[in-house]
Amino acid sequence: MMMFERGLASMHAAKLTALAAAAGMTLLFGPETASAETVVKWLHLETVPAYLKQWEDIAAKYETEHPGVDVQLQFLENEAFKAKLPTLLQSDDAPHFFYSWGGGVLKQQAETGALKDLTEAMRADGGAWEKSYNPAAVKGFTFEDRIYAVPFKMGTISFFYNKELFQKGGVKAEDIKSWDDFLTAVKTLKEAGITPIAGGGGDKWPLHFYWSYLVMRNGGQQVFEDAKNNEGEGFLHPAILKAGEQLAELGKLEPFQGGYLGANWPQTLGLFGDGKAAMILSFETTEATQRANSGDGKGLAPENIGRFPFPAVEGGAGAATDTLGGLNGWAVTKNAPPEALDFLRYLTNAENERLMASTGMIVPVAVGAEEGITNPLVRASADQLAASTWHQNYFDQDLGPSVGRVVNDASVEILSGQMSSEEGARMIQDARELE
């Protein structure tokens, strides 16, 4: 899932270089550590112009205060990022820090020796840097009590909907409480001649959200943890098999646009932004990303977008307040200069996180920055996270790259009717046992 934000659209393939400037090095390092030729290479996959401008401004301000430091923003589109990063990390062109979804992927990167262990730096001076973040955020990037990424933001996956299309189709979002209610809404929209859901099967991971949430709603945290740890019945647990059956039931309704199996995530966001589908299961930044990927660059007006959580499953062990979503941060490569760490501490301080939260870019992790959230849809995501009874990282990230790929493949094949629930579960279980 690889989301991220994790699945953000492709818009800028060029390297973006901020301005260099002049003043003394502070924070973690003294003035003597600032080299006149220090370049900090920052690899990201952000595409929303307004958000990129914020980062450029933050980098320029930092450079103004730190002579000789040149922060260079480097972009890779989401799928290219995932495909090229493993090789890039072992090359001389490795970035100094890069976007991370945490989970098993980050753990594997750490085990290869490609990352810098941040534990001492973050726990110096009584742990001031570590304590500046939500403890749950730091924990998500910690393996065996060693910290491998700097927290940046949290998020949760939920349904966003086009209010006008819901009204036209005679569907009320407030009535969608259970999975059966959701299926009823899909049928009602189809009967009204409206495409119910924008689906991105080309990238696969956008459709794994459905299977993941259904596993969570049916089985609850213990069933997933057992499967993750290859205990008990693993991914062949009855609750997980039921989740796949429910996913197949959704697929039989043909809820997505024609050709959805070939649609990538940018195209899927654009379809929703162009008003050609009533719903999308997506990230907290959907209001901005649907606009950026729409045909006219404007997309749906904010007041025309509603939001509701993934519905409960009647009789399931999971709670409606359990959330699936990201915990994103910045992983630092082993040869990064000290200035990269110093800039990351600056980028993710409460002031800058509050600034990014104020434009709807993030649900912040810096302590005290949550007050900056003003966007109603992002605020709804933040409120849902605040009340979360179990926040689970994306399955395809948490389970590691090899199992994660199988999860994505199986989700698409179950949903499209090419594989049964049990066949998909067996495929995932086999991949888990091979690790």
UniProtKB/TrEMBL annotation:
GO terms for cellular component: periplasmic space. It is found in: Periplasm. Keywords: Periplasm, Signal. InterPro entries: Bact_solute-bd_prot1 (IPR050490), SBP (IPR006059). Transmembrane segments: none annotated. Residues 1-36 form the signal peptide. Belongs to the bacterial solute-binding protein 1 family. This is ABC transporter substrate-binding protein. It comes from Sinorhizobium medicae.
